[in-house]
Amino acid sequence: MREYDVLIEKFHDFFTQDGNSCVSLGVNKHLDDLPNPSLENAALRIAAGRKLLADIMSFPKGVLEFEQILDLDLAALAVEFAIYSLTYRFNGKTQLQQKPTAGADISDGIFLLFINDPRPSHERLDHITARLEKVPQYLEQLLLTLDTPVERWVSMDIEKVNGLPEFFETLYNWAKSEQYNQLERLAAAKQQANDALEKYIEKLKAMPTTTNFFIGTEQAKTCIALRGIDKSLEELHTMAVQFLQDTGKELELLSGKLIDKYSLPTTTTLEELHNFLNQRYQVKLTHKDSFSDILLRYKEEKDKIIKYLQAKELFPIGEGQDMLIMQTPAFMAPSIPAGAMVSPPPFRPGTKTSVIYLTLSQELLDEHTELSIPSMMIHEGIPGHHLQLATAANHPSVVRRHFDAMEHAEGWTTMLEDYMLDIGYMGELTDEARFCAKRDISRIGARVAIDLYFMTGDIKYLDVGIDVEITSDDPFINAGKLLQKVTGFVGGRVQAELNWYSQERAYPLCYLTGNKLVWELKTDMAKAQQGKLEGLELDKVFHSMYLKAGNMPLAFLRKVFEHEKLL
To answer: pTM of the prediction?
Structure first.
């Protein structure tokens, strides 16, 4: 139907007006442009979003098929969330006015053009040079937009910005090696950008700041609903309490077995056992200050997992996908605690390539051991985020290729961390790996509590049955104590985790929420398919349907399973 196709084109156009979005989506538009941080641009986006939302809501669904109706519902949710992100207020201002974003806005698109774009280098360098030339103007506009920014977010942005000159130098050296024909122009743009960044930091430091970033209970409810999550704040909090209780019991059982196995003192605490295992199963470094051995281990583990899964045929691992595994660049480290994955550009033809970042430092070595590396690769790579998003990137639906469904993605990956141990991937080290994984995954219970606290400002949400003192006036100190107690994370990771919790409203709670909803969906499917599909055959069908349906909240995915008569 032509009218429906036109509406979907409008939806696609709405989400491809930002230069960085176009790079990450693989859309050949606005590639010379940095994001526009002005309030005027935000007002235009809000108006366009409201017009588009009205068109979507008024479209006659009676003439549409199931998949089209589902896509329109998803499109409406995506547009509503975009409008909300630009309009919700705290301290009497929008987040745009209180969140300095120079580090991310300047680097995100440029870095992907540099590292994950198959086009010839001179084409990418043309876009990069054009973007660098626009840095001074962008920074001037950002400073005009900012009004009493959040203190923590100022520190985060300054840390990211301080890493940009080194990144720009890397770009220049790359251009030189590629014999870029506009090298002098690039050098001039680089220098102007560096000068502008210095002035930006000076002006940002001189601004009055606020420590309050709470948005309040009602706006928190709206934010959660627009993530596609149909649960109250109280239900989410109860879920966190129960999860931490259950995980605590599992850890006690595992610790007893491991204390006996390694002949450790019966008084060994969870923290002491975790430290013991981290030391025993450290990756051997050829050179103390070199992390190439850790990167190599991740790449070896990736190949090992793929070989293991191909033999079992449990997941549809298609051709035309690839992963880049690399150390997190310095300017991105403040907001990537241990590892992260940038998904394949869904609108770019050809191989669907993800970038997996690993944050490596001497302090963080305990986050990258022979026991934790498999779990990280399962989560970020195959069969985790990479497989899910590389598969989703090939979905024919334009809406689903745009849609960010965080509990769908994080529920899938956290489910897999247990599932891969259940089917025996770690062999004789299953108990050790599960102990470390349970310590690590305890973070998703703490994330719910901290996310609710960071949104509402109500400290009651940090009460999840963990014996920890939370009496500070500083919410980051309170949240940090809980997170460290629950997970045993080193200080650097705790602070990096809290950084992104504070900015990504209702995203941290998606991990546990998604985990619970995925297991519920699979359990319900198993009941419905009893006598027809069981064991590994049921697993195969569940995995295939989950991946091939594309990106959507789990409440929507349940409708797909019902439509396919799997529930």
So the answer is: 0.93
